[in-house]
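Researcher: Next sequence.
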Amino acid sequence: MKTDDLIRALAADLDGMSPRNALRPLWADLVLATAVMAVPSFAVIWFGLARSPHLAHGLGLTLGTTVAAAGLLGAGALAAVAAAARPEARLRTGWAVIPALLMAGGIVVELARAGTGGWWQRLVGDQPLACLACVFLLSLPMLGGMLLALRRGAPARPRATGAMAGLAAGGFAAAMYTLHCPEGSLMFIAAWHIPAILLVASLGAWAGGRLLRW
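Model: Next structure:
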């Protein structure tokens, strides 16, 4: 059987799962899995970690930009994952420019307000490795839930789809982590939260290559 014929056959099988099509149930599975597995991560932040001292001043530039950029990253990646779960679909990444530009713009505004003095402290903070580890670990339940849901699909690029699931999990975890993060600099967020998200994406790529292969 030719590759194109196999892809069409798989797509037809997925369509046969539902009276309409298989994409909507898969969307529902992904959203439900992400929401359910976000509960333990949120519980750890809410009950196990201290509140961020910056919450008393409202969202502000750092918290507002972080929540918006991380939330958009998570939502965009989750949408891309749901679309890529079908064998004939392409994995789209152009949407990632939006959260990247939002974070970059926030850093520019931060530097314009604060100047270049003390930039090293804003970049490194007090506990950079702890924040990196927290974002990484808090992402894992959501990544696991998404990968399990994706096993119902048939992505043509399982490693890339797994990596995108990691980006979604990392984005949502970073957004929730603002409830605790004691640092008030977007430079710090970019320097330590983004690498944590990329580590989750790497783990997702590794796991996706094994769990989502067909």
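Model: Residues 29 and 101 are 30 Å apart (CA to CA). Helices lie at 3-15, 23-48, 60-84, 97-114, 119-124, 128-150, 158-177, 186-211.
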